[in-house]
Amino acid sequence: MSVRLVYETHSTTTDNEAGIATGWLPGELSERGLRDAADLARRRRDDGVDLVYSSDLHRAVQTAQLAFGGTGVEIRLDARLRECDYGQLNGAPVARLDRQRAQRVDTPFPGGESYRQVVDRTADLLEELADRHDGRRLVLVAHSANRHALAVLLEGADLHRLVSVPFAWQPGWEYELPAGWRRPR
Fold this sequence. Notes:
Elements: E1 2-9, H1 14-18, E2 20-21, H2 31-44, E3 51-54, H3 58-68, E4 74-77, E5 92-93, H4 94-98, H5 115-132, E6 137-142, H6 144-155, H7 159-164, E7 173-178
């Protein structure tokens, strides 16, 4: 069997609208973000979701709670779903961060982490999900770096290419995670 995963990004934040790379800072949903979370609720509440895993950063928690709160679907917070830690660049303008992304695939941001480290912690979570949730449908609410990690781990995408192009939002991505899945070595 397998675990059916639905990946959703957190909703739009005031930082997104201001061109700020929030990183490990909490972030706050904007008015548009509140509408985005309501749209997520409409798209996924009757979608057969068994469990929601969310990043523990405020903007993702806010999104998950607005979309799934009061539905009876459990929401579990997990730090492994955090955005890339931009270290000294948490809260910096996106344009400044964009100039460094390609160099930070394997080399951490000063005082932070690399994109490869995000892939590694996302892989740790996927292994756990594959062992514990066979036959279930899970929603993951997280960040762009985690979407990149899923593409690398489950689709064989190239991480260097992913971090070098603008993130293309869409209303969810779906994956099949085979029972007992282990990260490619």
